[in-house]
Amino acid sequence: MDSIAYNTQHSPIGAFASFTLGAKGAKGGLGVELGKPADQNVFVGLEKPEGGFDCLPFFDAVADESLRFDVSGNAAARGPVLAPFEDRQISRELSPCKDVWRAGALEFRIHTPVCPAPDPVASPKAAQKLAYAPALAVEIEVDNRKGKKARRVLFGYQGNDPFRAMRRLDDTAHGKFVGIACGDSTAIASDSPGVYSAQGFTAEQILEEPLPFNRAFGLGGVGLLVGEIPAGKKITLRFAVCFFRGGVVTTGMKGSYFYTRFFADIEAVAAYALQEFKALVARGAAFEARFQRSRLNAARKFMLAQAIHSYYGSTEFLEVEGEPMWIVNEGEYRMINTFDLTVDQLFFEMELSPWTVANELGWFGKRYSYRDKIRFPGEEEEHAGGLSFTHDMGLANHFSRPGFSAYEKAGLHGCFSHMTHEELVNWLVCGLVYAKQTGDKKWLKASLPIFEQGLQSLLRRDDPNPRRRNGVMALDSSRCSGGGEITTYDSLDVSLGQARNNLYLAVKCWGVYVGLGDLFERLGDARRSSLAQTQADRCAASVVGAADPQGLLPAVLYENVQSRIIPAIEGLIVPYCLGLTKILSKSGPYSALLAVLKTHLEKVLVPGVCLFPSGGWKISSTSDNSWLSKVYLCQFVAEQILGFTPSNVADQAHAAWLLDIRNSYWAWSDQMISGEAVGSKHYPRGVTAILWLKGGK
To answer: Would you place residue 76 in the very low, low, confident or very high pLDDT band (cuts 50, 70, 90)?
Structure first.
């Protein structure tokens, strides 16, 4: 945990926007609807007593555009006025709700809201306005009590939007505050006494400009807010970092940001944020206190905080054709509500905002579901299939047509094929957990047909003939057109990529069958409860029977695939989240399954099988492509259900992946090949780490 030069996303809830900061150079900034950092210069600095400014290292040298305009060569080139603090002078403290940088007499604090996203139907409008305000509270504290003269402090950025110019908010703020903005989409505002705004070609031109009139120079691509701290004083200046996109922002269906119910433009956002500044700072106080009370080690605290920041950076709350729609975009890929991420973000959303789970499931049910036929591999005959759901809802603010995703193609056996069985399982996992944990009877009554049809669809995908069923998926969707279904592990080899007969998916199905048996029993539907329970028993027997004499399980059942996988244990999380403690008891009805899975994990968690030399976890013995979100989930299952001791060595190895200079630009990333992020960058899925707070380890 020595490095502090890593990017972190700081984001309002549901704004699909980020103030990204941490990596050295022009690698952060204010971005809206991006799958990456904004790559802008960000200036945070304090005047030195001897002249010039020490700054946090979030900028590169800025070309003086005046030299390009002044072709006669009369303009004199200016020397640098800004210099980065030395590394040894800087410290950083990151938590889910705060990012605090200290250097000399300067302290720079960014406050991020980690708080419930209010239900748009059942919560007061004032609470919605505060939670969804697309703004962040930022403070700069300067201790000049030992100083002999006043020192200037600066905060600003250089816009890089080719379609929007930098401007001063003063012109449209009606004297309420000062600020700088890039067009109508990003801004920094302040109402602290004495702070002024200015534009220029470079920060040096602004800071050396003697005439206030020239602060409004419209050609300048750099905007700064500048304040002055008197000698003998310790003062905190406050700033609002703001985002805004008005009107219809989507295609396929017409959607607008939910916050536009409350704010007409970015000036309105800035005015509200400064007026309610203390409330903005306090938005995450409860979660912050819980985080600080936890007994997590330093590596886990860092990874959890970093993952939460990246989750919010992908959230987008819209009003779509008159209905609220909660979206979590898929990081760098920007796919809309990728379902195999939704199921893993479930744990975090159920902790803070359960209504978002119901909202996501509702949109999948009414627009992104379909019915198919099914085939045995290598056969042309089609059998009755049933209900399932798409991989996603579209891409980059374009909603795909009903019943189809942006991702899935036909005729494939690997990446981009259909995830029909997995997404059916994922809807059922989310639905079961939402219904059980919230007790929402109205939602359950309306959604009951999906549970009923979902069970029938699962049964058929095992085998059309009930007498041949073994609890494990055996048929592929007709949408594959002769190809094969895949799982969320789309970029891995067959050990985790193939859906049919996959061990990971089999145990996850077992968890769903157990949950459906419990649900239908509580509803008094004995027939369906018995069907589900029988399937759970069959599935458990199939898995137990697949163990070799050493107790190892094949990654794919019945197909002579001998790869070993850690996510064999992942499905145990389902009965855990449903509170079915007897199911997970060592003396319960599935004690044999639990024992086999524990033995399997003990034997694969060794170097050369499912451990990297660093001690980090390899999710498959035959691939160096390991996914941190799944590692976190499986760590929790191993520790809290199977009784494994947490490994500080593994935690440090996983944190080191994120801090590696090859990866740290992307904030939190998921797919790591031998520790290098090669996909799923800038990603929201890491909030599986929220489970650690449940276990307290």
So the answer is: low
